[in-house]
Write a structure and sequence with these properties.
It is a single chain. The protein is of the alpha+beta class. Among the domains are: about 125-195, no CATH class; about 285-545, no CATH class. The protein has 28 helices and 21 strands. Helix 12 (about 285-315) packs parallel to helix 16 (about 385-400). The protein binds arginine and glutamic acid. Arginine binds near residues 214 and 218. Glutamic acid (GLU) binds near residues 653 and 672.
């Protein structure tokens, strides 16, 4: 008995990583986690998932745009991602007559699929450990304390040198890059193929794709059909090419099979995608810094701004539309910060990280490796030393730069001033035209000066309440010297006098532009002063950055050396990763349990025709009433909508394919519960859930709701 307990204990100790934790690198899967994945139910071989010598599941997983994941689901390049990932493309094609955001869009035929300039889809053709190569190159670097070990420019030049110019010339659309892992202790090279003719194929109405909007964002139970459909096009040779009518649907190396079998509690689930950023290797001091400075400032400042925004949105339907997306963007990171701080306290992340540090200190002492202990001391010192600067930077960013919209007016007055002083009439007109364009970009259709004025007053007052006068942008001194501290009057004056204060002001300026007006413009001077302060703070903080990055690298090196890297995984850095776990509900609090699967019943329970967030489209209600669910329904006759799983995902994993034990697609990841966002610092096995739209709901909406069943014909559906 004693022996068994002892065995169990050592097993626990030698597996520091908890089941389901981890964003694993595919080339290391076999040695690291494959056995555990099989134990949990995976029926594939490791080479089915990742095979450097032939096509595998990973070839169907792509970067969608700049920050999402997508997956290829047909031999004709059909791609699935989230509605919120395709949102700006759907919005760009929308007009008052054809409002695809509100009504949804279905091309109906390939000719009618809509091109999206600027949108790309990136395939990862190859990945390779190049640590030895990079470290050898870095060793030749003679600059002391250089940041080259993290510099994208430096590393990507190494990548190019490694593959050679001719390789890139012979492979159109191919790019190579080297990315640092573990804070710069390991390096991988990625060969990527980037397609740029990506067309919109279909999207549900927002009342399905964004159902629950901000209220339900970061929430489980969830009832959103957060998906959209695109297609990758290539030239006649299957190579990336700019949009051309003659381009053809891509014949991909690999596309996913789609399962109609659905999920049960505790089923194996696995996700591949591009998680953006995590901070697993934070020290205890950084955890506290994150909570007490970053998150606190963000939460407090955004609360004020959002409250003001919401008041105006509720008062005026025009403002509601103008500010909907800004509001959503603001609340998304706000709610994330709340959840992260909640978890930091609830699970005492400070102590968790401190235990880790203490373990390293004890080990380093035993094996005489003082460099790791020094690294920790240095990290502690830097966090202490940068405290005030960091607070001021976050206050400036959240309180002013991200809150007050007019900080985005053009402030480079030099070219126009020069042109006004000069004799060249053409040049003068050219500069005036440029300002006209810049003004239109700033005062666009979504800008309400009235709202900005109100928010500016609120934010500036709070900023001045919290930041000592001598630490504020220099121009703010005028509030006291000229306005007796009256912020309202000060802001009113900016709007009343500045050429950017209103359309009338701007046109008055354009009719008689003078250098003096430019020089004295109070709004321009305000913004220039804020920018100067931002630059000064960033420069002061930069002094700490190199030392911090070097100490962080040393700390992580120590952890890897102590624990051996087998059971570790590097922080997310928007490279391809795999996470696996189980389909599972969770208990958010005592005596409360959320199941793993939501259904259309829940959509109807949430329905509220008076609240835009919870409107249910009538066609969906008809299908619900008729229980017309076809082959997509659950055995008990309900329509599945979303499910939850213990996979370790983060921002960037939106749109990620979720697979069953056979490697078939069962859903598309789109969110996490707010109780789980602390997992970016420390995985939370009992709280953290990925929120995934059930593929059967996706197919049902395409087929029964949108009448786009023809799309299913090109997919591999497995009953
Ligand atoms: N929370 C999800 C993510 O982090 C969804 C965001 C988009 N939805 C929204 N209501 N803002 O990206
Ligand atoms: N919605 C997030 C995204 O756009 C995923 C949610 C998360 O942070 O896990 O990537």
């Amino acid at each position: 008995m004693k022996k068994i307990i002892w065995l169990l204990l050592t097993a626990l100790i030698s597996f520091p990583v908890i089941a389901d934790e981890g964003m694993w690198l595919l080339p290391l899967l076999r040695q690291q986690k494959f056995t555990d994945m099989q134990r949990l139910g995976l029926k594939l071989e490791d080479y089915d998932i990742y095979n450097p010598d032939s096509s595998s599941l990973k070839d169907a997983v792509v970067i969608f745009g700049g920050g999402c994941t997508g997956e290829i689901v047909s031999p004709d390049g059909l791609l699935l991602t989230n509605h919120h990932c395709g949102y700006s493309q759907i919005q760009q094609h929308s007009t008052v007559e054809h409002d695809y955001l509100t009504d949804g869009f279905w091309a109906g035929s390939r000719e009618k699929e809509l091109p999206n300039p600027g949108l790309t889809v990136t395939f990862i053709d190859a990945m390779e450990d190049v640590t030895a190569y990079v470290l050898a190159e870095l060793a030749k670097d003679t600059v002391p304390n250089s940041m080259n070990f993290l510099s994208p420019r430096y590393l990507n030049n190494l990548a190019k040198a490694k593959v050679g110019e001719s390789f890139l010339q012979n492979n159109p659309g191919t790019e190579v890059e080297i990315r640092p892992f573990y804070g710069g202790n390991q390096y991988y090279m990625f060969t990527k193929k980037i397609y740029s003719d990506i067309r919109l194929v279909g999207a549900p109405p927002s009342s399905i794709g964004k159902f629950g909007a901000d209220t339900d964002n970061w929430m489980w139970p969830r009832h959103t059909g957060d998906f959209s459909v695109f297609r990758v096009y290539a030239d006649a040779n299957g190579n990336p090419a700019p949009y051309a009518e003659t381009n053809l649907p891509l014949r991909p190396k690999r596309w996913l099979q789609i399962s109609l079998k659905g999920v049960q509690a505790n089923d194996y689930a696995m996700m591949m995608g591009f998680p953006g950023r995590t901070n697993k290797y934070y020290t205890s001091w950084e955890v506290a810094e994150r909570r007490d400075i970053d998150n606190t400032v963000r939460i407090d400042m955004r609360e004020l701004r959002q409250q003001a925004m919401l008041e105006e949105m509720l008062k005026d339907p025009t403002v509601r539309i103008q500010y909907a997306s800004k509001y959503a963007g603001s609340t998304n990171a706000y709610k994330n910060a709340i959840g992260a701080s909640w978890a930091i306290n609830k699970r005492n992340f400070e102590q968790v990280k401190k235990t880790e540090q203490d373990r390293l200190i004890a080990w380093s002492t035993q094996y005489n490796k003082p460099e790791y202990i020094e690294a920790l001391q240095q990290l502690q010192q830097i966090v202490r030393d940068r405290k005030d600067l960091r607070y001021r930077l976050w206050m400036l960013d959240e309180g002013i730069m991200r809150s007050i919209e007019f900080v985005r007016i053009p402030t480079d007055t030099q070219p126009l001033s020069d042109a006004l002083k000069g004799k060249d009439k053409k040049e003068r007109q050219a500069q005036i035209d440029l300002w006209e364009v810049a003004y239109q970009r700033f005062a666009n259709k979504d800008y309400a000066p009235r709202v900005d004025r109100k928010i500016a007053k609120i934010m500036l007052k709070e900023y001045r309440r919290l930041i000592p006068a001598q630490s504020q942008p220099a121009y703010f001194a005028e509030i006291d010297t000229k306005y007796k501290g009256d912020v309202d009057k000060f802001i009113d004056n900016l709007f009343d006098k500045s050429l950017f204060g209103s359309t009338e002001n701007f046109h008055r300026f354009l009719s008689r532009p003078t250098v003096k007006a430019l020089q004295e413009d109070p709004m321009i001077r305000f913004v220039q002063s804020v920018q100067d302060e931002r630059k000064a703070l960033a420069a002061a903080l930069e002094k700490f950055e190199t030392d911090f990055a070097l100490a962080h690298r040393m700390y992580v090196k120590g952890l890897l050396e102590m624990d051996k890297e087998q059971m570790n995984f590097p922080d997310a850095n928007f490279t391809l990763r795999l996470t696996y776990g189980q389909v599972k509900g969770y208990s958010p609090r005592d005596c409360d349990y959320y199941g793993h699967q939501t259904t259309l019943e829940g959509v109807m329970e949430k329905e509220d025709p008076t609240n835009w967030e919870f409107v249910v489209p009538s066609k969906l209600k008809e299908l619900y009433t008729a229980k017309d669910y076809g082959r997509y329904q659950l055995p008990e006759g309900k329509m599945p909508v979303a499910f939850a799983a213990t996979t370790h995902s983060t921002g960037g994993n939106s749109g990620s394919p979720v697979f069953n034990a056979d490697g078939q697609l069962i859903g598309i990841n789109f969110d996490r519960n707010w109780e789980g966002v602390g997992g970016d610092i420390q995985y939370l096995p009992d709280y953290q859930r990925s929120i995934i739209v059930d593929i059967r709901y996706v197919l049902f909406i395409m087929d029964k709701y949108a009448g786009a069943g023809y799309l299913l014909d090109e997919m591999d559906l497995v009953e």
